[in-house]
Write a structure and sequence with these properties.
Arc Repressor Mutant, subunit A; mainly alpha; Tetracycline Repressor, domain 2
């Protein structure tokens, strides 16, 4: 038996969902203990509306993760189109560092939900995005050839362990510079 076709989502429901995600991204980046009630209030929706879209805190965190990781994956080829490979890599790393500030407080939730990358549908595409940037840099001579993108991902993973409230942005910039220096030819 074929299930009935699903109803299209109303525009106001889509708008509410986007507002919740925008507010949640900022609220969780500012404080990992941000309450769902506070997020709903700041988004201008009732708590019931938030729970209709995201039945648990983990569901909200994972939706943010999916959105942000996909954005990073999509940015790699776009940056290579607009910039020389070494610049594109550095700009992409800066975006990864920004994402790391959000992930700092919710890394355990993401790690548990994705089985520590074992069940993460975004792991391979993220590694492929790194590989794309590395290959372009190797092709133009700005980066060492033959670098394993998973090794670079391991280096980048330190970014979501840096406490943003304790000089995180400056520390991330210094760490990224060390990583980039190690990748240059």
């Amino acid at each position: 038996m074929t299930p009935p076709p699903s109803k299209p989502t109303r525009k106001d429901a889509l708008d509410n969902r986007e507002r919740i995600l925008t507010v949640a991204r900022e609220a969780l980046a500012a404080s990992t203990s941000a309450s769902l009630t506070a997020i709903a209030k700041q988004a201008g929706v009732g708590i019931g509306t938030l729970y209709r879209h995201f039945p648990t805190r983990e569901a909200l965190v994972m939706e943010l993760y999916r959105h942000d990781i996909q954005h990073l994956i999509d940015r790699a080829p776009a940056l290579l189109t607009a910039h020389p490979p070494l610049d594109a890599l550095r700009l992409w790393f800066d975006e990864v560092a920004h994402y790391g500030r959000l992930k700092f407080g919710v890394a355990e939730v993401i790690h548990a939900a994705t089985g520590g990358a074992a069940d993460d549908e975004f792991y391979a595409p993220f590694v492929d995005a790194i590989g794309l940037l590395l290959e372009a840099g190797a092709a133009d001579g700005s980066l060492k050839p033959g670098i394993d993108p998973e090794d670079v991902l391991l280096q980048l993973s330190v970014l979501w362990r840096i406490d943003p409230a304790r000089g995180g942005e400056e520390r991330a910039a210094r760490i990224l510079e060390l990583i980039v220096d190690g990748l240059r030819s």
